[in-house]
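Reading a protein record of the kind used here takes only a little practice. The record below shows the convention in full.

——
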Amino acid sequence: MQHIRFGRLFCSAMMVTTMALSPLALASDSDMSVLRVTGESQLSVPADLAAFSIGVQNSASEALAALEKNSQMMQQLKRALVEAGVSDDELSSGAFSVQPQWQSRPRNTENGWKPSIIGYQAQAQLLVETGRLDKVADYIQAGVDAGANQIGQLRFSLQDDERVHQQALTQATAQARQRAEVVANAAGVELGALSRIDVDPQQIRPYPSNRVNSMARMASEGVVPVVVPANIDVHATIELTYRLQ
């Protein structure tokens, strides 16, 4: 269910001079009195999209051996995710690297000491993005059971954030106009033409990322991780400038 709550709405009008004036004064705009009002709206809607990375990191004495082992484990991981219900369009390739592992410098070594390569580390990831939030914990569990030992941050978001932002803009605009009418009536003046509209940049506040390393540990211990998505806050601010008659 969509919950709507409005932030404080306020209006201000000021003389266009270099002096700081009372916020209740009327502004002068090209010899016309104007009224500026600001409206804010915030919509809090349930997240409907989750994304996380899951992969394998392994080491071997030779680069080719590390790569081959990683490839085998990644194929096993992908099969497990598909069997768990992840569709092809919810999967994509993530980071991949093969890096040398260098010898640590021993104590009391001479100045001319140089490190040597003692092995290679391979790492690869798959990216999972799904709208089936109730399946995320199962996907993580299936991946860990298949050998995954690298799980990235879990993020929640909206599939159509622009639609929600437009709703917030509509609410903020309506409230700003209502406030302008109230102020104009109280001041004994009439609103004229709308001369200016200022819109703040879209502000979407994603649900804070969850570090799921602890989930990987829980899954490896046979405990299904608990994933509870929260709401996404979408904020909009509108400033309307009216000429007064």
